[in-house]
Give the backbone structure.
Amino acid sequence: MRVFVDCDPGIDDAVALAYLAARPEVEVVGVGAVFGNNSVDVTADNALRLLELYGRPDVPVAVGAARPLVQPPRLAPHVHGGNGLGDVELPEPAGEPVAESAAELLVRLVRESPGRIDVLAVGPLTNLAIALGLEPELPRLVRRLVVMGGAVRVAGNVSSHAEANIANDPEAAEAVFAAGFELDLVALDITMKTVATPEWLAELKTVPGERAERTSAFLDYYADFYTGVFGVRQCAMHDPLAAAVLVDPDLVTEAFEAPLRVELRGSLTRGMTVADLRPRPAGDDRRPARVVTGVSEADFLGRMLDALR
Ligand code: RIB
Ligand code: CA
């Protein structure tokens, strides 16, 4: 399968790239970088370093949006470290970003292979919104879009109601949800339940090799942050779970369908992902998204470990 990844690496973005890179059947056709966990210059540079670490140095990396469509950017060094990768230093990349922007690269690739490329979006959705502006047929040209983002029936993580990737560019997310993609949403509803447990993190430390060692070091930083959230030394696996849902659909055990919107005006709820949960939403012609609510955690963690072996 062919996959375009739009991301803001980011520790969990890094682990998502590791998951994809380890799978011989996955051709990563391009990576778009976006601001989010760090500035777009840093996330693009991290994408290059990570693709070299995980053995896919030839994947084109394109620099994307440096800021959201409307609001000022908000970065997350307190979650992902000053360099976006838990302050773990990877070697300078040999490659450099391509000349096209992330939106331009995505649009060109899907026009060249209509209906044959899946998109995994695990950062703010700004690049996708810009790509929709360049190519309104994008939802028909992309085979399937898997988004990590949102908090549908659970609390948010950057505010009471909003999850980071959606809150970091609510207008972009609303444009993407309205566009009619074949869309799977991997939201906090499932990513906060499907975590790298203390036992899994300990097992990762026993896996030899540079990829596993570096990834374990990234996750040490992430687990330090998440200990304050969970009260136990474990961490969420937001972006790798979204990668797994794309590549291994058999992992999904439960999901529901609903049209999605993003709250753009609420003084307390801006950036909230609103699913219309009524059985037949009246007068709603928006294509429903599939919201993943159950996965086989043991299988996911097993495959994640296999990817790092
Ligand atoms: O809320 C989790 C998401 O925000 C993940 O994609 C993480 O990388 C951060 O960007
Ligand atoms: Ca991310």
Summary: Residues 210-230 form the longest helix (21 residues). The pocket of alpha-D-ribofuranose (ligand 1) is lined by residues 8, 10, 12-13, 36-37, 122-123, 148, 157, 163-165, 238-239 (CB under 6 Å).
